[in-house]
Amino acid sequence: MMKLKVTLSSEKPVFLPLHYNYILQSFIYRNMEEIYSIFLHNYGFPYKKRFFKLLTFSKLYGRKRVIKGAKRIIFFPPIHFYVSCILEEVLSSHAKVLLKREKLRLGRNEVFLEGVEVITEKVEGNKTLLKTLSPITIHSTREDKKTIYYNPYEEKFYSLLEENLRKKCQIAGIKEGLESIKISPAKDAFFKKVVVLYKNNFVIEAWRGKFLIEAPSKIIEVALKAGLGDRNSQGFGMVAIDEEN
Questions:
Q1: pLDDT tens, 4-20?
Q2: How far is CA 198 from CA 223, 234, 235, in A?
Q3: pLDDT tens digits for 176-208?
Q4: Do domains 2-120 and 127-241 have the same CATH topology?
Q5: Topology of domain 2-120, per CATH?
Q6: Separation between Cα atoms, residue 105 and residue 31, nearest integer Å
Q7: d(CA 118, CA 95)
């Protein structure tokens, strides 16, 4: 099981809006071969009447300063992020394109690639503690089209995460062990709510924290590759094995 760690640098500080998910998503799609970017952006993997991208990425990591009044964030390079996908060919394509390009743009900033690293994770057993690299969001839609977001203090949050993961597993060709999936809060877990404006006008509620997943190892690998919850390809639900526990 692999993720990519992409490290970027610049001769200047990197200025981004406080809510930069769309900018980072665009950066990832723009820097992979067209066959993959078109497929993921316009289509995805079909499941009944829906499509799943089965790609996810983390927040940006690095030294930073938040200017809340201006709704801006200043990063002081180097900065890095993680990206994963159910198809490892997508990750290979992203790495190959990044390595070929001398100059890159992240929003309005000119940056360059400092490095691409393959991060491997090994799932051992059927019980794994996960930490969020980008916050998890899960929702339902009422008959009046209103979006209802759930939080980690509600049972519905976990049942919807489990059902969502079952669908991703079916797309990946996994048929056994789906009913055994159990996701729960980690012991003594602390959760932090994050409100993100996607494309500056769509409000998404999400949560950071640690979660325990109990399932066959192949199913846990799907969670690590494709993310937990909704809107993974918009920068939500990326998780990693918590090595501290």
A1: 999 999 999 999 999 99
A2: 23, 8, 10
A3: 999 999 999 999 889 999 999 998 788 999 999
A4: yes
A5: Alpha-Beta Plaits (3.30.70)
A6: 10
A7: 9
